[in-house]
Amino acid sequence: MKDNVFYPIGTQGKPWEDKERHQWLQSTKIHRSYQNEVVSKIKSLENIFDIDNYGALSYDTERYSLYCLQSQNWDDKKPSILITGGVHGYETSGVHGALKFAKDKAGQYLNQFNFLIAPCISPWGYETINRWNPNAVDPNRSFYADTPSEEAAFIMHRVQGIDILAHIDLHETTDTDETEFRPALAARDGIDYVKGTVPDGFYTVGDSENPVPAFQKAVIESVSKVTHIAPADENGEIIGSEVTQTGVINYPMKKLGLCGGMTECKFGTTTEVYPDSPKVDDEECNDAQVAAIVGALDYIIEKANDVYSS
């Protein structure tokens, strides 16, 4: 159903040009500090991980240096795990869930895996609590060759050449998806806004080309010990996609240019936490992200013979 939602930038039905994109950028402002809230936590882990400055965003190269955590004494004989957060900078638990796992849980798995953890791929989006980058480009639709997103380009270059066994990409679905970001998307692209629903609870998005249902189930079961799982709606869907099992939907990751499709990993999942639920608080959301990672890793360890022989 089309909704006549007024958006204060642009003309309804007409895609934005440079003027509108600039107007949108001028409407944004800094709400929080990437350096104080994220970089300081990354640097506090230097005794556990090697810290790699893998790039800097041209919007402000000093303010928006990009960091990842890498296992010390990287061993190519071990399977490698990629954990990403903050592709959408406003999705807070993705950033802090990745950091909490690195601080509190990663040590239990360092003997079995190499880790590459990029907690905040979009620091400008983190500071402005935004889905897009300053060019009104969604980094999480931009993971492809010749990408218009610096955020995507830098992390794709960083992981190039690494044989990634599993990729856990940490996200949130929020009320502002429907109150701000999807209406802005419709305005930017000159299309009608079709109202959606925000599911109350955690769910995962698998790759429709490689859905690995048992792996997704293990993630859901681990998270269910921490927080509630999103139910299907009356159509058997979550955000317009068929629920294939409790709390799981699938997207064509590579076709959509999603972060979860940037490698050839055997096991991939994109988490979706709902931080606006009255049933949770910020720490529970962070814990849900940690539980998702733990569930993924424990599954791989439990199924090691099957994983490495196939």
UniProtKB/TrEMBL annotation:
- Gene3D superfamilies membership: Zn peptidases
Residue ranges of every copy of the Peptidase M14 domain listed in the record? 30-310
Pfam families, per the entry: Peptidase_M14
Q: Which family does it belong to?
A: Belongs to the peptidase M14 family.
**Protein name per the record:** Peptidase M14 domain-containing protein
